[in-house]
């Protein structure tokens, strides 16, 4: 701690930069990095190397070797490169490796050199070949930009939603640009390129010449350009050693620096910290590294070996054959605490804690000085923040001890920030371990989020560590442990060295009924790996039939899928499987399959009744279900337009009902056929619509039309009951107003329905005169009601008195009015009085 600032390098009056070692690399590289294609993923990501990439020999032993290492130099995977000539390597945001070939084909591999997919950058790129390529990141996703042999640019802003764009041509461009970069402005991706002393900006539609503001006229030709990690800043290096730094919009200059080195640099990248006012670029030559910013001075480092720069959110990683270093600006909190002779509250608190450990009274003096200025909460916050920026655990502990010491003297200091920092640092120290090799800084970790970090651990198949982090941070099971176990299971099914039974059992033992686990997804992965039987075993553990069935169908296990769907009780699921089987199997096999599943057969019949009635007939025929077949023919007859077709369908129904031994249905259907034929003749004879009327309506209409003989014929042929026929006839005659015929009919023979209906129907049709003809003929029991209906209260009273029925007398009295029916009322009252005396 005494020499803590020994490796601090000042840049101007306010900023300090520090370079420290992350890992001693043990990847045993025989080649220099300059002889390899190199790509390192940001956020402490993996490193891809293509060795022997310059060799042209075609012998298998001389094939280039594609290797992927962790940031600590541990080999993750390697494969001999058997495809075309590679021009560029790059990483996607999800840590997939993009291998861009000379013919414009882009091959995508995962961290373990396992091929995922490929795509082409188009025919023009194929014809003209790729001279240079760059991988870039925007809000749309990971993009690829290509410079072709025809000096034209093509790009896509999102490789997952491939839309190729051909950029406008640069007028008069006869040779490749000296340098170029991809910029993102107002959500539009553009290309900036340099040709000599000229800068050109290519957007979707045009090519324009641009001049950076404040650029010296004597600056010379452009050799190198660099875009910052967030794409907001741009740096240009010229052949006079002049460096211009400004906004990527080319509307504002930030600063400039003259390096006096004319040779073109190998690399130039930005070194910036979020929310910092300091702007700096790191320029690398073969054996020299320079940090230049808004100062007349610069920082220079000697490089002992060939190096490669990796720009990060808050600094630059420096790779070489033997070491992996990190160069960054010292954050303000660290500066305040560790700067020589600093009197910042955090610095005093750190000293106070050290003196307290020595049991020195100076601890009280330092503490009082902070408390007198009322800066103790700020001091604690400074120590907590600075601990996050430190890489060495001992320094982290020292700062956190100081923060813990200070917050003991503060009333109601919220502990959340301290606890959260302790948790975050424990996670960071775990993943920075050499065996894991993810050197994330605290700033990168917060930008990346814990969810993405867990995803990256899962991609590296570091399942135990990911689970321990979830448990330590107490993440919800669905967000944490369950998701990781599901990934582990998907990886487990790819292992070919164990039997299906063993793998399924191991997965179930580990996963059990953990919330959020989908066995169907794991089974789908097993099926994709060619392990169908394992997939079926895993599906046995899936509690949701809705997840089981689709995968079983995909695996051509339709009968098993049908059984599972029926077990679920979900009719929609059963329908899904049945319709799938219908399309998959021939008709006979399909019907035989349904025969063994009564539930499915019943549901399919319901479906056919509404959607496929012809199929329903085949089902009934196959089952010898003559009753339903007869019903089917009856139903079908109504869709026939011609009478012959309808009669034919009904005759088929008659045959089916006889086979089903349902004589009632057969006779009823025969009667319907007879009625249809009679209705056709009636329609032809009288030119009126009789078809599709019921028997009763047919008879009623005939009477209404005055065809009494035809009505009588139907009455006899269809054996209509007498009572029903009399009701039909008197109703129709009254409706027609044929009172004479009605009277004649009433006298033709004794009425089977009595004569009260004659009275009621006459009154209903407002003809009391006719009604009075029938009232005396009504039976004695109903005569009172009949006389009241025709309005003859006197006769009604006489009938009631004759019956000596008190209820009938009361009923007649209720219909009388005191003013008009005095005589009737008196007569009834006398009769009632006499009845009561007895």
TrEMBL record:
Its main location: membrane. One of its GO terms (molecular function) is actin binding. InterPro entries: VPS16, Vps16_C, Vps16_C_sf, Vps16_N. Residues 517-834 form the Vps16 C-terminal domain. It comes from the Eukaryota. GO terms for biological process: endosomal transport; intracellular protein transport; vacuole fusion, non-autophagic. It is found in: Late endosome membrane; Lysosome membrane. Gene3D superfamilies: Vps16, C-terminal region (1.10.150.780). Keywords: Coiled coil, Endosome, Lysosome, Membrane, Protein transport, Transport. Residues 4-420 form the Vps16 N-terminal domain. Residues 349-376 form a coiled coil. It is a peripheral membrane protein. One of its GO terms (cellular component) is CORVET complex. Plays a role in vesicle-mediated protein trafficking to lysosomal compartments including the endocytic membrane transport and autophagic pathways. Believed to act as a core component of the putative HOPS and CORVET endosomal tethering complexes. Core component of at least two putative endosomal tethering complexes, the homotypic fusion and vacuole protein sorting (HOPS) complex and the class C core vacuole/endosome tethering (CORVET) complex. Their common core is composed of the class C Vps proteins VPS11, VPS16, VPS18 and VPS33A, which in HOPS further associates with VPS39 and VPS41 and in CORVET with VPS8 and TGFBRAP1. Interacts with RAB5C. Interacts with STX17, MON1B. Associates with adapter protein complex 3 (AP-3) and clathrin:AP-3 complexes. Belongs to the VPS16 family. This is Vacuolar protein sorting-associated protein 16 homolog.
């Amino acid at each position: 701690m005494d020499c803590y600032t020994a490796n601090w390098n000042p840049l101007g009056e306010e900023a300090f930069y520090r370079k420290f070692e992350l890992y001693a690399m043990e990847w045993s590289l025989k080649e220099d990095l300059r002889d390899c294609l190199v790509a390192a993923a940001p956020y402490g990501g993996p490193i891809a190397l293509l060795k022997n990439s310059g060799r042209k020999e075609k012998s298998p032993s001389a094939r280039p070797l594609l290797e992927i290492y962790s940031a600590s130099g541990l080999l993750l995977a390697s494969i001999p490169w058997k495809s075309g000539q590679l021009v560029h390597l790059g990483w996607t945001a999800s840590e997939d490796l993009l291998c861009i070939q000379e013919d414009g084909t882009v091959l995508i591999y995962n961290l373990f050199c396992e091929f995922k997919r490929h795509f082409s950058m188009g025919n023009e790129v194929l014809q003209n070949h790729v001279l240079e390529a760059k991988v870039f990141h925007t809000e749309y996703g990971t993009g690829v930009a290509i410079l072709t042999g025809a000096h034209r640019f093509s790009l896509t802003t999102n490789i997952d939603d491939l839309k190729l764009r051909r950029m406008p041509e640069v007028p008069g461009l006869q040779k490749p640009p000296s340098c170029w970069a991809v910029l993102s402005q107002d959500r539009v991706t553009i290309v900036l390129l340099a040709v000599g002393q000229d800068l050109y900006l290519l957007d979707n539609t045009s090519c324009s010449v641009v001049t950076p503001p404040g650029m010296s006229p004597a600056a010379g030709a452009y050799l190198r350009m660099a875009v910052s990690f967030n794409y907001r800043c741009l740096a240009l290096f010229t052949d006079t050693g002049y460096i211009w730094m400004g906004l990527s919009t080319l509307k504002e200059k930030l600063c400039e620096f003259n390096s006096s080195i004319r040779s073109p640099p190998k690399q130039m990248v930005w070194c910036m910290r979020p929310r910092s006012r300091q702007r700096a670029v790191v320029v690398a030559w073969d054996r020299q590294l320079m940090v230049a910013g808004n100062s007349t001075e610069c920082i220079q480092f000697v490089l002992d070996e060939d190096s490669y720069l990796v720009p990060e959110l808050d600094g630059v990683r420096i790779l070489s054959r033997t070491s992996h270093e990190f160069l960054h600006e010292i954050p303000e909190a660290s500066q305040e605490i560790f700067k020589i002779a600093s009197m910042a509250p955090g610095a005093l608190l750190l000293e106070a804690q050290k003196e307290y450990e020595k049991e020195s009274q100076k601890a009280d003096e330092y503490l009082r000085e902070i408390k007198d200025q009322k800066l103790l909460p700020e001091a604690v916050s400074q120590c907590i923040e600075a601990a996050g920026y430190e890489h060495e655990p001992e320094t982290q502990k020292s700062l956190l001890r100081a923060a813990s010491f200070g917050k003991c003297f503060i009333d109601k200091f919220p502990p959340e920030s301290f606890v959260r920092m302790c948790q975050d640092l424990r996670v960071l120290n775990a993943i920075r371990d050499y065996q894991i090799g993810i050197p994330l800084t605290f700033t990168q970790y917060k930008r990346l989020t814990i969810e993405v970090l867990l995803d990256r651990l899962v991609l590296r198949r570091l399942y135990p560590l990911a689970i321990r982090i979830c448990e330590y941070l107490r993440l919800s099971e669905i967000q944490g442990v369950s998701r990781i176990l599901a990934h582990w299971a998907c990886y487990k099914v790819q292992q070919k060295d164990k039997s299906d039974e063993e793998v399924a059992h191991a997965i179930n033992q580990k996963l059990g009924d953990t919330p959020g686990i989908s066995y169907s997804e794991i089974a789908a992965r097993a099926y994709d790996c060619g392990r169908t039987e394992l997939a079926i075993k895993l599906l046995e553990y899936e509690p949701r039939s809705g997840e089981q069935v689709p995968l079983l169908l995909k695996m051509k296990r339709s009968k098993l899928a049908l059984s599972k769907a029926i077990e679920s009780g979900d009719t929609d699921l059963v329908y899904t499987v049945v319709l799938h089987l219908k399309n998959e199997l021939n008709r006979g096999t399909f019907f035989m399959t349904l025969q063994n599943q009564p539930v499915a057969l019943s549901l399919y019949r319901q479906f056919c009744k509404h959607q496929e009635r012809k199929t329903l007939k085949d089902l009934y025929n196959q089952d010898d279900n003559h009753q339903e077949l007869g019903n089917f023919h009856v139903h079908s007859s109504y869709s026939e337009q011609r009478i012959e077709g309808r009669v034919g369908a009904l005759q088929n129904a008659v045959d089916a009902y006889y086979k089903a031994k349902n004589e009632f249905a057969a006779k009823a259907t025969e009667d319907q056929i007879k009625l249809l034929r009679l209705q056709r003749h009636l329609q032809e004879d009288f030119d009126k619509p009789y078809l599709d009327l019921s028997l009763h309506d047919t008879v009623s209409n005939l009477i209404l039309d005055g065809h009494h003989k035809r009505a009588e014929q139907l009455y006899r042929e269809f054996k209509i009951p007498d009572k029903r026929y009399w009701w039909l006839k008197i109703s129709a005659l009254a409706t027609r107003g044929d009172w004479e015929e009605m009277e004649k009919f009433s006298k033709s023979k004794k009425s089977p329905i009595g004569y009260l209906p004659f009275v009621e129907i006459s009154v209903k049709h407002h003809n009391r005169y006719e009604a009075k003809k029938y009232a005396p003929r009504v039976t004695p029991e109903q005569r009172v009601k009949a006389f009241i209906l025709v309005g003859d209260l006197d006769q009604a009273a006489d009938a009631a008195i004759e019956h000596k029925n008190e209820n009938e007398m009361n009923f007649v009295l209720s219909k009388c009015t005191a003013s008009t029916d005095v005589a009737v009322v008196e007569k009834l009252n006398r009769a009632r009085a006499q009845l009561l005396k007895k």
